[in-house]
Amino acid sequence: MLRGPTHLDMGQRVLEALNATVHVWLETLQGQVVFNEVGAHTGLEVMGDLPRLLRG
Fold first, then answer.
1. Is 42 contained in some domain?
2. pLDDT value of position 12
3. pTM for this model (two decimals)
4. Is residue 33 part of a domain?
5. Given the DSSP bridges, would you call strands 33-46 and 2-4 parallel, antiparallel or unpaired?
6. Range of 32's domain?
């Protein structure tokens, strides 16, 4: 857990990990895939409604 900023101080807690996997998909407005890769061992910080974010 990392302390994150609020309007007043660094009191809010932020979930963080250094063992995340990320899938990046980038396409043009016409739908042509320009980049599609999976990266491992990435850093990730999550804030907000975690159950909603995990649903996708």
1. yes
2. 62
3. 0.49
4. yes
5. unpaired
6. 2-47
Helix (H) or strand (E) holding 52: helix 50-55
Could you tell me if residue 55 is left (phi over 0), alpha (psi between -120 and 50 degrees) or otherwise beta?
alpha
Q: What angle do CA 6, 9, 10 make, to 5 degrees?
A: 80
Residue 38 falls inside a structural domain: yes
| Domain contains 56 | no
C-beta of residue 23 within 8 angstroms of C-beta of residue 33: no
Count of structural domains within the chain: 1
User: What local confidence, expressed as pLDDT, does residue 26 receive?
Assistant: 96
Kindly report, residue by residue over 4-40, the tens digit of the pLDDT: 555 555 556 667 778 888 899 999 999 999 999 999 8
